[in-house]
From TrEMBL:
Catalysed reaction, written as an equation: Hydrolysis of terminal, non-reducing beta-D-glucosyl residues with release of beta-D-glucose
Alphabetical GO biological process terms: cellulose catabolic process
Full protein name: Beta-glucosidase
Keywords: Carbohydrate metabolism, Cellulose degradation, Glycosidase, Hydrolase, Polysaccharide degradation
Species name: Prauserella marina
Amino acid sequence: MTRFPRGFLWGVATAAYQIEGSTTAEGRTPSIWDAFGEQPGRIAGGDTGEPGTDHYRRMPEDVELLSTLGVEAYRFSIAWPRVRPDGGPVNRAGLDFYERLVDTLLGAGITPWPTLYHWDLPQRLEDDGGWAARETAYRFAEYADAVLERLGDRVGTWTTLNEPWCSAFLGYGSGRHAPGRTEPSSAVAAAHHLLLAHGLGLEVIRRHTRDARAGVTLNLFPVGAADPADPADVEAVRRIDGLQNRFFLDPLLRGEYPADLLADLEPYGLSGVIRPGDLTSISAPIDLLGINYYRDLNVSAVPDEKSGLPSEWVGAEHVGFPERGLPKTASGWDINAGALTGLLVDIHERYGPIPLYITENGVAFGDARGEDGLVEDTDRIAFIDQHLRAAHAAVEKGVDLRGYFYWSAMDNFEWAEGYAKRFGLVHVDFATQRRTPKASASWYSRVIADNGLRENDD
């Protein structure tokens, strides 16, 4: 048996726009993803977040399902457009829903683990400049204040942001995510303003709560050279690692942007959006760092068919990502579980022994249903098993890893992929909203009960 440390936290994760539906209920106003979905061709199948998995109306049923699976913690996000519609006055009905959710979780013995921002910026704020505008960070602090005022007395762990890299560089660089802008300088400004929002949000959390833990969640990709002996490939790695990882880790944990990154992004105005005091706020001590891990990146200086503008790789649009012949997920991502060990060890050694949590790790596969309606997703079981063993290897090397959240609890709206990609432990029939746990759900329940992995059990 491969056992994790005593007290290791086992959970599942979701996000508001992906599961809640009810996008116009009880005062909620449009987010950037609602507006993005109205634009033809933006989202696969023309899908939108309505009805999602109808969680807004089915929340008690979903919490009961989580309890049945034995999960110890539930990572969810709070929808800004419900709490402060259009970024304006507080909407009591929106906060009422999250109060019911938190209380229902606590009643079921499940730890609530809310994220304040998981990509659903009120569209009205985007109309005013979005994350490229500094004012949006201050509006985020006002929103956070409303949430903490209501829920701060019963939530023990808070996350400010989820994956600011995606919000900034996919949203404002390549335009593949909402709001769909292709403005490299705006992407760089958005990344800094998101970090500033984290710092301001952290101040709000500290002001409202004495004992709660707080942190931020980043999607971090190990970056390797296609040819480590080729200086051009090594230089491409430096640039991509800077944009993907060090852009966020260094300000948060060292209080500064890397000098090489500042030089790379000088043409795009990074130094011009940094004001006195910003980095002090951004680097205020956090209690934990959430890591979302899905894949690693293999980088070459030789461009490929995906190179060029518009690109999320601001200043490095020329790089390529050559194939390695590795197995792939339904999303087209390489499966390389072993790289997770190196990532966790690298963070531990480079930035010090900060408590780490894997806040997302998951996979989409075909998930064919049998004649009995069940999904025997042995490929997903194997994926989770491999990644948990890689995580455990990092623990054995001294990494302070304290928990794991599978993405996602149930099939849902997968952003630009619509409903085409299924990541859930629970199958959702989107026509009927019927929930059916997959084979992976039962397997994960046993992992939780065992606090570990049985040998030859994938």
